[in-house]
Amino acid sequence: MADRIPILHAIDTGGPGGAETVFADCAAHLLAGRQLPLAVVPNDGWLASRLRSLGIEPVLLDSRGAFNLPYLFGLLRLARRHQARLIHSHLLGTCVYSAIVGQLLRIPVIAVFHGATDLQGSGRLASIKRHLLERQNVRLVAVSQGVRADLERWGLPPDRIRVIYNGVDCERFCPGNASDLRGELGLAPGTLLVGAVGNIRPPKAYDLLLRAAKLVLAGHDAHFVVIGEGSPEAFGPLLALRAKLGLEAHLTFLGYRPTSPLLLRSFDVFLSSSRSEGLPLSFLEAMAVGLPVVATPTSGAREVLESGRAGLIASSTSAEALAHSLSAVLENRELRAQLGAAGRAMVLERFSAQAMIAAYDQLYESLLAEP
Fold this sequence. Notes:
Elements: E1 5-11, H1 18-30, E2 35-41, H2 46-53, E3 59-60, H3 69-81, E4 86-90, H4 92-105, E5 109-113, H5 126-133, E6 138-142, H6 145-154, E7 161-163, H7 181-185, E8 192-197, H8 206-216, E9 222-227, H9 232-245, E10 251-255, H10 261-264, E11 269-272, H11 281-288, E12 293-295, H12 299-305, E13 311-313, H13 319-330, H14 333-350, H15 353-368
Parallel strand pairs: 1-2, 1-4, 2-3, 4-5, 5-6, 6-7, 8-9, 8-11, 9-10, 11-12, 12-13
Helix pairs in contact: 1-15, 3-4, 4-5, 8-9, 8-13, 11-14
């Protein structure tokens, strides 16, 4: 093990989610060869379990708080003890802490941003955070062109930002047999199943999804499912809105379930009502299994779906616009098949895990070769 290169991976969320999935994939695939994996996560939750299943024992460091000195010193001690040669960090908070550690130890830092929500709540310390992220030892990575634009608007220099798209394992996520989700839900033959995947939080705008579902059900035999975890405080208003709209028999919150090809293949259409998306991994997984996607006009949706080539993008973030696009897909089997095939082809071309890993591996090599 002595000849392996220690690289520290750090993130301040424990998942489940897209950023956490990319974190685990990078730790498992990029560090399985001549690098030594050191993975830092905030708690013993989903991500820690995922890392253990991949053969990586995580280090638990609580990152909560506006300026968490024990977390900063914990990262510093870990990097120093293992003589880390590079830090690969995700999300604003951890990227800033990692930039400080990298500066103190004179090692390079990769700072990955997954969406505009990374930049919210930065407060009066925003200029200090930007200054730390602009240091010469930090390489800024955006997971999409839209996130790159968000970073530029936040004040980071354009020439310091590069785009590395999130990627999907296209051998695992592929067309094929589905799970018995329809049987579990007791759906009648011919009922179309519309699925949404994502944790219950404000940017996902599930209130908009419920209102769009109400409009769609006026003309279509369909059932909606939402897969994702959330606090009782987040679920409460949605359950109340579902009751108010009379959707109890037509819309099911399934809670958290591991995203799998079998589960996604049970859907007829993948639906996103998000107000903000960087590069939604759930989109890519759905496209990889051949599902048509209908989405609100976020920057991530536009970039992934290419304005109708691999899915339909609603004309606005209104319930009426989302319902109109979804209805167009539900009532046209041929269009669903066409969009699904195009989406699968696009993921193979631009958004595969192999392409993501190759891009990070190239960045690793260039940084480790620097004096």
